[in-house]
Structures are given as C-alpha cells and as structure tokens.
C-alpha cells in the first residue's frame, strides 16, 4: 500500500504541528555522501592496489565484491573490521582525506528550523563510532541533537525492523508523530513496518550524482523543500510589476 506521505518527487508542505520527534540519518542525509563514496570506491581501492601490486581497476572490482558480501550488516561500516580484512589503517586513511567531509545544502538551516519549532532531534546513524568522531570533528553538529545513536549501540542495522524496537528503549517517541529522513530505501522500509508515519527519502545523497526520486516515499533533493519559504524582508520594498 502506498504510504500517506508519498509525493513522487513533488513534496508538499509538512504539517509540523503533527510531528514531535525528528530522526535524522548522517551520511547522505546531513552530510554529503561524496566523501564516503569516494573513500570506499576510489581511494581505498587505489591504496589497496598499491599495497598488493594489482591494477586499480582490479582492486576496485575485488573490493566492491567484498563490500557487497556484508552490505546491510554492522560490518558494512565497521572500520576495525575493514582494517583487519584489508590490512590497512582505515582510520588513518579517512583522516588523510577528511577535507572532503561536508554538510549537504540547507542542512544547518534545517537544524535551525527544527530547533525553532522545539522538536526533539536525534541523530540515528550507521556510522561506526570512529567514523562518527572524525566527521563530527569536521562539522560541529553533534551538540544540536538530544542524543546520538549509532547502530553499533543497538547491535542491529537500521534495515532490520527490530532496530526500531531497540531504539524505542533508548529514545521515547511516538511513531505516528515522528519524521525520519534517510537516503536508504531499505531503512525507510523497516521504519514503515515499525509504524513511523512521516518518511522522507533523500534523493541526492551524493552532490555529484543525479537526483533520483523514490517511487514509494516522499523524496527531496534538499531540506529547503521541507521548510516554508523565507518571509520577505520588511525593510525592502515589494517588487512592482511593469
């Protein structure tokens, strides 16, 4: 069944009076996923190729296959796991390209907007704790949230419906009055099965990729689509038509 907040890429105004709690993903939602995509798909394969005396293309093919074997599990984002598996210092490699970590457009504006509305805000992320620290050191947004929850804390990926039951032990929220924004459809699927009512799909998690709306979930390219347009500056005269 289609969900009540589907817009097929044409979001209407959110009824913020119906929402008490906002759950936000980190990578691809608040942060530009270009950093992660470049790191895992280009930079790590290049370093791995040099270390093992193979071509970058061969390295990339091998690593993408290995990544897929643990997709949607906690190993997927576990830096210690990949450091051991690849015999590379993944933390140090991330630090060497951390200048690529950046907020997505309107992310700070959206957090300001939610604060002004007095919403309970929680960061719910699959980022490994070591990755999370690197990123929050670069973009100081951790203090904006009432709490930060990593999937490692709960022992399940967000794609598992039981994740949300475990989250409810950490965070008090009413599913019918909660908005979740995430760039992964599988996460929204599991949240929907749990009963979270307001689901937002991020259609351009990587700023260098195309916008791809989801056919089931309300899709936005940027968070300004969830906020009312700014009021006209009263100090400026209104434009007149000629």
UniProtKB/TrEMBL annotation:
It comes from the Bacteria. CDD domains: HAD_like (cd01427). Pfam families: Hydrolase. This is Haloacid dehalogenase. It comes from Desulfofustis limnaeus.
């Amino acid at each position: 069944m289609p969900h009540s907040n589907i817009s097929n890429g044409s979001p209407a105004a959110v009824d913020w009076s119906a929402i008490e709690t906002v759950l936000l993903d980190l990578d691809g939602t608040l942060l530009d996923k270009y950093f992660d995509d470049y790191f895992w798909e280009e930079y790590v394969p290049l370093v791995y190729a040099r270390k093992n005396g193979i071509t970058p293309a061969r390295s990339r093919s091998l690593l993408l296959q290995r990544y897929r074997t643990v997709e949607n599990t906690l190993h997927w984002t576990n830096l210690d796991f990949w450091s051991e598996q690849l015999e590379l210092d993944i933390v140090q490699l991330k630090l060497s390209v951390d200048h690529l970590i950046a907020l997505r457009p309107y992310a700070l504006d959206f957090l300001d907007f939610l604060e002004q509305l007095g919403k309970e805000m929680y960061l719910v992320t699959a980022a490994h704790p070591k990755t999370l620290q690197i990123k929050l050191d670069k973009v100081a947004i951790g203090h904006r949230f009432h709490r930060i929850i990593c999937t490692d804390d709960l022992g399940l990926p967000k794609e598992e419906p039981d994740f949300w039951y475990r989250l409810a032990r950490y965070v008090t929220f009413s599913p019918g009055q909660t908005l979740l924004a995430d760039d992964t459809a599988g996460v929204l699927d599991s949240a929907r099965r749990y009963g979270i009512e307001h689901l937002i799909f991020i259609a351009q998690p990587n700023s260098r990729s195309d916008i791809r709306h989801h056919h089931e979930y309300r899709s936005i390219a940027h968070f300004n689509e969830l906020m009312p347009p700014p009021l006209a500056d009263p100090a400026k005269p209104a434009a007149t038509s000629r």
